[in-house]
């Protein structure tokens, strides 16, 4: 800590700011930090600014979450025109530490902790240097923005860094003997007492009410905020466990619709699920125009393969790859950590496997149920009722004509001024030869040389 009087300066500065009679906003940040959370934080900050709020208190208790979500929240808090306070209610770990450092002041409960912000995968292995470097500088610049120690912030991210010593708020020297995280090979995670000594936190309080009393705001109007139903829905739909399910149901519904006549319930359900999947990811910033372009291009290639290009080859496979790539990009986000990649791979795999299994089960069992018969009624078309698949080629038997192309053994012929596709009985007939129609086999005209 370069300035031992920093804490006193913050208190004096805060007392001037808190002279207004605006309300105090309470914002809970609990559980996993996901991409739906920044929209809630932004809404509350905007409302607080419009109402000339006195202060916004973020009640933090989290083990972390998505880095991209945390950086968005950090930017929102730093740009806030209202004074912000982080109340670390037990823990602000990983992404939670970044959010706490972005606030103007930090207060912690007894026995709380803050730090351990390195990026790891689900097996606990350290992320690549690219990810670590990004997170390290995010933490450092955020700490500097609020006059906190850059060295402590970076050592929360990278265990390869070490701190020889720091002066605490009382001017005493702290070394690795006092703070284990100062040593190389150790990440910094600070207890409440250490955070206060190092100037990371401004004090230790049991409850938010105690913080307000300390700041002289105990009689100010309190506003407790919570997520709206739409924000809760978006967070639910973008959950790494739920998103692949909607993706699977969407693909299955469209597959069922393609195999069924007309347009009905399967298509409506499929489009609804995909709309919820894409819409929610688009709203929270997990999807942008790049993913939309890949998705539409993939669908176009698949339709081209089905409707225009015969067989199923490069065009169709390319379309499928592009569609799945767009799904994958939506699941990983802007600044993916190893855990985000893992969840994206697992989510996409689960979605594909689930769709295939459900499709097989559906086509093995559902067509035989009464519900299927009601949804897609089927009535046989009997010849006795006048139905036929014949094209009327029987009327041509005995008629003569000429070959337009060589018959090898099939080709084109001209009969009574019209062109038809015809087939010989296996022998080769050159073009411009006289032929006669001597039979019809399943709407295939059979001819022989005269």
Q: How does this structure look, described?
A:
With 450 residues, this protein is α/β, with parallel strands linked by helices. The chain contains 15 helices and 15 strands. The chain folds into 3 domains: 6-227, 2-enoyl-CoA Hydratase, Chain A, domain 1 (Alpha-Beta Complex), CATH 3.90.226; 238-375, no CATH class; 384-449, Beta Barrel (OB fold (Dihydrolipoamide Acetyltransferase, E2P)). Strands 1, 2, 3, 4, 5, 8, 9 and 10 form an 8-stranded mixed sheet that branches. Strands 11-12-13-15-14 form a 5-stranded mixed barrel. The radius of gyration is 35 Å and the shape is elongated. The termini are far apart. The model is unreliable at 15-19 (pLDDT under 50). Residues 394-449 form the NfeD-like C-terminal domain. Keywords: Membrane, Transmembrane, Transmembrane helix. InterPro entries: ClpP/crotonase-like_dom_sf, Membrane_assoc_protease, NA-bd_OB-fold, NfeD-like_C, NfeD1b_N, NfeD_membrane. Residues 242-364 form the NfeD integral membrane domain.
Output the keywords.
single chain; 450 residues; alpha/beta; 2-enoyl-CoA Hydratase, Chain A, domain 1; OB fold (Dihydrolipoamide Acetyltransferase, E2P); 8-stranded mixed beta sheet; 5-stranded mixed barrel; 44% helix; elongated; membrane; transmembrane; transmembrane helix; NfeD-like_C
């Amino acid at each position: 800590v370069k300035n031992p009087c920093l804490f006193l300066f913050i208190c004096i500065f805060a007392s001037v700011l808190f002279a207004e009679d605006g309300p105090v906003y309470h914002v809970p940040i609990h559980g996993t930090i996901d991409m739906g959370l920044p929209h809630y934080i932004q809404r509350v900050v905007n409302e607080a600014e419009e109402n000339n709020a006195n202060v916004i208190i973020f009640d933090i208790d989290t083990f972390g979450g998505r880095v991209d979500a945390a950086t968005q929240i950090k930017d929102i808090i730093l740009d806030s025109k209202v004074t912000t306070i982080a109340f670390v209610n037990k823990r602000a770990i990983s992404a939670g530490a970044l959010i706490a450092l972005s606030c103007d002041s930090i207060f912690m409960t007894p026995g709380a902790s803050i730090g351990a912000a390195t990026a790891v995968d689900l097996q606990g292995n350290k992320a690549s240097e690219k990810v670590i470097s990004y997170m390290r500088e995010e933490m450092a610049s955020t700490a500097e923005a609020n006059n906190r120690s850059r060295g402590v912030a970076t050592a929360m991210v990278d265990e390869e860094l070490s701190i020889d010593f720091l002066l605490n708020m009382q001017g005493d020297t702290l070394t690795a003997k006092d703070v284990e995280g100062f040593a190389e090979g150790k990440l910094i995670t600070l207890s409440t007492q250490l955070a206060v000594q190092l100037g990371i936190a401004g004090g230790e309080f049991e409850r938010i009410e105690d913080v307000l009393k300390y700041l002289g705001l105990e009689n100010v109007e309190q506003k407790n905020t919570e997520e709206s139903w739409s924000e809760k829905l978006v967070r639910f739909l973008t959950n790494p466990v739920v998103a692949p399910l909607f993706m699977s149901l969407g693909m299955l519904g469209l597959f069922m619709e393609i195999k069924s006549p007309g347009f009905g319930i399967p298509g409506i359900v499929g489009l609804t699920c995909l709309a919820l999947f894409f819409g929610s990811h688009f709203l929270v910033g997990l999807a942008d125009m790049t993913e939309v372009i890949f998705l539409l291009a993939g669908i176009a290639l698949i339709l081209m393969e089905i409707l225009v290009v015969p067989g199923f080859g490069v065009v169709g496979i390319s379309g499928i790859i592009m569609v799945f790539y767009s799904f994958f990009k939506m699941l990983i986000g802007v600044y993916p950590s190893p855990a985000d990649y893992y969840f994206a791979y697992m989510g996409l795999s689960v979605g594909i496997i689930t769709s295939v299994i459900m499709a097989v089960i559906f086509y093995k069992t559902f067509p035989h149920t009464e519900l299927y018969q009601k949804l897609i009624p089927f009535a046989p078309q009997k010849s006795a009722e006048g139905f036929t698949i014949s094209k009327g080629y029987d009327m041509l038997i005995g008629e003569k004509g000429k070959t337009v192309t060589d018959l090898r053994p099939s080709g084109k012929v001209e009969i009574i001024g019209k062109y038809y596709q015809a087939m010989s009985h296996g022998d080769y007939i050159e073009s411009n030869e006289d032929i006669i129609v001597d039979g019809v086999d399943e709407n295939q005209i059979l001819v022989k040389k005269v």
